Fold each of these.
Amino acid sequence: MNPLRQEHVKASRTFRWAFGQLPRSPGVPGYHSAPMRRDVGSCTGFMVNRKGVMGSMSESQELANKSVLKGAMLLRELARHESGATVTELAAAVGLSRPTAFRILNSLEQTGFVDRNDAKYTLGWEFSRLARRADPYRSLVGRIQPILEELAESAKETVTLAVPTPGGELDLIAAAAGSHVVGVSVSSLIGQQWPLHASSTGKILLADMSSAKLRENLPEKLEKFTADTISDRKTLLKELQEVREQGYAILDNELEEGLLSLSRPIRDSAGSLVAILTVDAPRYRFGRDRIPGTLQQMHAATEKLVRLMWPGWEGQQAEG
């Protein structure tokens, strides 16, 4: 692969973080978070579809330039196709008419943000150049922290946000402590790496993987950490299917004695898993009777995070 093509591939793989300004910090604890399915039918409350979610128009949305928003939609979709995509494929994926998509792609090609080789488009050299200069992890933590703190206050438990990495791992990027004196220590979470099969965030990540990638990332022998750790592959695969269907995951005494965690996934407009929201609590205080109410609180927080990370999507319906 020539150096130019390598830059395009690298930009494609990291695009959703660069565009969304998602920050990263070392290490991630794995607490239960549910992977969202590729279709819009799962976890619809905070899943943004490719055409956007209809809603009330805020002032910022009214001022948004629709052509720019459509261009962003096409760039996001194009970033998912390392070998390129045709205008017909891109238009269908984002819900635009073919003439509209062609017109926008032509403008992006003139500015160097996309390249065209025969009938296929790829991310362009100018896009790769700007992506190398950007720090995709600089600004988001400060903006999402109030949402995490609000959830931690209402749930009275520790809240974390983790993001998946290209290498199939997880990074904890932000956390907020609950109001209880005794609880899960935020400082103890940062910098830690937890086994995917015995963590809630890990189960979300595993459930989001294809069968081939799952076989690649899941060892034959699953280590036990407590008496409740799932160490049988067949049992774990069954639970991962439940996670896909219900839209959240529960970790109950599987990684550490007395720890219970709930997690929900966050997806971008293209349907890719970009973050996992988790609430961690000691079992003696957080019984299963609190799970439904906490999941509702997490749902509301996740919707706020989606609006913050992709403000142009809520209330914007792509027009062909």
Note: The first strand starts at residue 85 and ends at 86.
Amino acid sequence: MALKKTQKSLRNWSKEDWTTGSGKPSLETGEAYRPRKEIKRLRKKGLLGVANRIKRAATRAGKQFAKYTKSTKIRGRIRPKK
């Protein structure tokens, strides 16, 4: 049986190489946990530090998820071109 579009998306998402910028566990460093491609993109734009500050602030506030700015959000894999 063929996979549905959402199942394929989830499978691809889980196969991505997820890590932190330093490579250490997020609980130790408080860094954002993202796909390696996204870390590379944020480093290139100088936004990885911003994302990590947002994540650390949310963690200190007792939140599991951080509300990132538009420029630091994880980019969608399947996105229609405008």
Note: Residues 57 and 66 are 8 Å apart (CA to CA).
